[in-house]
Each structure stands twice: as structure tokens, then as C-alpha cells.
Amino acid sequence: AAHHRDLSGPARHFVGGKVPLGLKRKALRVLVTGGAGFVGSHLVDRLLERGDSVIVVDNLFTGRKDNVVHHFGNPNFEMIRHDVVEPILLEVDQIYHLACPASPVHYKYNPVKTIKTNVVGTLNMLGLAKRINARFLLTSTSEVYGDPLQHPQVETYWGNVNPIGVRSCYDEGKRTAETLTMDYHRGANLEVRIARIFNTYGPRMCIDDGRVVSNFVAQALRKEPLTVYGDGKQTRSFQYVSDLVEGLMKLMEGEHIGPFNLGNPGEFTMLELAKVVQDTIDPNARIEFRQNTQDDPHKRKPDISRAKELLGWEPKIPLREGLPLMVTDFRKRIFGDQDSTTT
Ligand code: NAD
Ligand code: UDP
Ligand code: UDP
């Protein structure tokens, strides 16, 4: 880890602060937990691109080596197979803490493990951040608003969450993770950032992870019916992954703790989403209604005024532009299409 130590000292000096005129930004050592996952791997690409050195800590529960394999051999990249529920010793300047399954199917698979990951895993990463005085960013979720009674959701809304339901391991886990993050900030003076991420899609999502965009796209490509749960009138707001990654990096580098909603305010019913998928992939794709899951939030749409004002961030890619980029990647992974390019 000698090359990591070489980058210490002066690097930390400019974290979030203004880099003096004429001085190049110093490379940082950055830990990305969950960095072999969907969002994490795109973040890792950007961090390496700007010259930082990156350590990924991932237990590969829902992540895949494939997502980061293009960095193997890069001396600035290192992957450690490790479960954040266990303590770990590392030396870095910043920690992006993403480790946690995000698809309802995955986080319900072993709910107690999901809680441990969110609570013990986040505690460990905060303890690590405290010991090495690193800046810590938590990827929380719009699910902290539960089945919201306020629409769109503003960061000041405290939410409407069922504490004993099938989604609670995730919702309540993330709420506790936010609490821990603020307690380390207040108690240990740790520099922290909190992002509340709304539904995000893009290349490298697990093909069969059960989330609605990945399901519809894979189904349309395989000429299977699109499975709409319930009456299909529930809404979500879909953000393209590169917009999210830009928001996360702006949040980390900025001066504000948050929480910040990071999402695309473009709101769609599941039937409208199915229509966009039909228009993009196959106008003849059939729709099949299925029974909805328990405690499914009826609507969700971010109010992003705070991120716009304080981070100077807003998403740029609407669903109809982002979806084709994801379709190219899915087509290639499902059919092994030689002609398509991937992101
Ligand atoms: P993902 O499932 O693709 O990635 C999560 C990564 O964390 C995977 O690589 C997985 O192997 C790893 N992981 C899980 N448990 C772990 C553990 N105990 N120890 C170490 N690694 C572990 O999900 P994603 O969509 O990339 O989500 C990343 C983060 O963003 C998550 O914290 C998620 O809660 C949050 N988020 C995502 C969305 C979204 O729509 N994608 C929305 C809200 C919040
Ligand atoms: N921790 C870790 N790596 C470190 C420092 C701490 O994994 O470099 C873990 C540690 O094992 C503990 C948690 O983080 O379980 C919280 O640490 P902290 O020092 O805040 O609390 P304490 O150890 O006093 O309970
Ligand atoms: N959904 C659907 N068909 C599917 C998968 C999901 O209609 O094949 C619905 C689901 O009921 C929910 C919405 O799509 O209302 C978003 O679900 P997802 O699991 O993607 O994310 P969530 O926002 O619930 O975490």
C-alpha cells in the first residue's frame, strides 16, 4: 500500500476546500464500499478518471467482479472482498459508503443481514472514518420517506415508515444509518455527507434483480410480457446513473452535510414506464398484471431544490434518453451481441 501513503498529507488539505490558483488538485485515496455494484462501479470509473486512487470493499453479494474488471491491473485500483459487517483497517481520505443491497428482492432475501449491513456495517465504516479522520458519505434512500404523505418529498419531511413490515429492514436500516452518521458528526466531529437517492437505472444493473426498470427492459428484450404489479398507477421518478454519480461527487466535495435528495423529478406511473419501454424496445410487448408486493409506496418524486441551490446540481438525462443507453448494455449481456457497445 506504499503508493497510497505517497498521496497522503497535502491531499487532505484541499478536500472540499478551494484549491489555490495554479495548483493542480491533489489525488485522493478514496474508499468505495459496495464499489462492485451498479452505482458503485460507475462512481469508481469517475474517481479513477479524475486521478484518484480507489479501494473497493465489497462482499460481492449483489455486486460483480465484471463491473470493475476493466480496472484490474491499474495500480491506482484495488479490490478487497470483505463484508462491512466485520471491522477493517484502511487509510484513506474519503469514504463513499454504498455497501447494501438496493433491490427489494435482494434486501428482503435475508432481512436480518440487510439490517446488520446497514447498522453494524455503517457503524464500522464510521468508526474507520473517525480513526483516520476521513470524510464520510452515506448513500441513503428515498425509502426513508416510506409511503409518503407529502408529495413531492422535501428533505425536511420525516416520512411515513412501517417499522414492522417486510421493507423495514431496508427503510429502518437506512434511517438508523442516517442517525449514526449524524451522531458521529455531532459526537466525534466527523465530516459527513448524506445523500437520499431516488430510483436510479442504467448499464450494469443486475439483469434479474427484480427492480422495475431492469425487469421491464429484460422482459421486452426476451419477448416476455412486462410484469406490472398492482394496478400500475403507483409512481416513481427515474434517474440515470451518471446524473447520480455527478451528484454524489458534488456532495462529497461541497461544504454541505445534507441530507440531499438526489433524483430526477420526472415522475411516471408504472404503466407509463411500460409505455416508454415499449416505445424504446418493442411496441408489441405485452403487459401482464401481477399482484403487488406488501407496503409498496404509492408515489415518489424528489423535490431537488436544495441540491440545485447548494450543490449546483440537477439531473440532465430524461428517461427517454437514458433508457436506450441501458438497453444497449442489456442487449449485449443477454444476447452477447458483438455489435453493441457498452458503457
Ligand atoms: P447494488 O446491489 O448493485 O450494489 C450494492 C453493492 O454492495 C454490491 O456490490 C454488493 O455486493 C455490496 N454489498 C452488499 N452488502 C454488503 C456487505 N455487507 N459488505 C460489503 N459489500 C456489500 O445496489 P446499487 O443500486 O448500486 O446501490 C448502491 C447504494 O445506493 C446502496 O446503498 C443503495 O441502498 C443506495 N440506493 C440505490 C438506489 C438505486 O435506485 N439504485 C436508490 C436508493 C438508494
Ligand atoms: N472500526 C473499524 N475500523 C477502524 C476503526 C473502527 O472497522 O479503523 C469499527 C470498530 O470495530 C467498531 C466500530 O468501527 O466496531 C465503531 O468504532 P468506534 O471507535 O467509533 O467505537 P468503539 O470501538 O469505541 O465502539
Ligand atoms: N414493479 C412492477 N413490476 C416489476 C417490478 C416492480 O410493476 O416487475 C413496481 C413495484 O411494485 C413498485 C415500482 O415498480 O411500485 C418500483 O419497484 P422497484 O422494485 O423498482 O423499486 P422501489 O422503488 O419499490 O424500491
TrEMBL record:
<dbReference type="GO" id="GO:0048040">
    <property type="term" value="F:UDP-glucuronate decarboxylase activity"/>
</dbReference>
<comment type="similarity">
    <text>Belongs to the NAD(P)-dependent epimerase/dehydratase family. UDP-glucuronic acid decarboxylase subfamily.</text>
</comment>
<comment type="pathway">
    <text>Nucleotide-sugar biosynthesis; UDP-alpha-D-xylose biosynthesis; UDP-alpha-D-xylose from UDP-alpha-D-glucuronate: step 1/1.</text>
</comment>
<keyword id="KW-1133">Transmembrane helix</keyword>
<keyword id="KW-0210">Decarboxylase</keyword>
<protein>
    <recommendedName>
        <fullName>UDP-glucuronate decarboxylase</fullName>
        <ecNumber>4.1.1.35</ecNumber>
    </recommendedName>
</protein>
<dbReference type="GO" id="GO:0032580">
    <property type="term" value="C:Golgi cisterna membrane"/>
</dbReference>
<keyword id="KW-0472">Membrane</keyword>
<keyword id="KW-0333">Golgi apparatus</keyword>
<keyword id="KW-0812">Transmembrane</keyword>
<dbReference type="GO" id="GO:0042732">
    <property type="term" value="P:D-xylose metabolic process"/>
</dbReference>
<feature type="domain" description="NAD(P)-binding">
    <location>
        <begin position="31"/>
        <end position="324"/>
    </location>
</feature>
<comment type="function">
    <text>Catalyzes the NAD-dependent decarboxylation of UDP-glucuronic acid to UDP-xylose. Necessary for the biosynthesis of the core tetrasaccharide in glycosaminoglycan biosynthesis.</text>
</comment>
<keyword id="KW-0520">NAD</keyword>
<keyword id="KW-0456">Lyase</keyword>
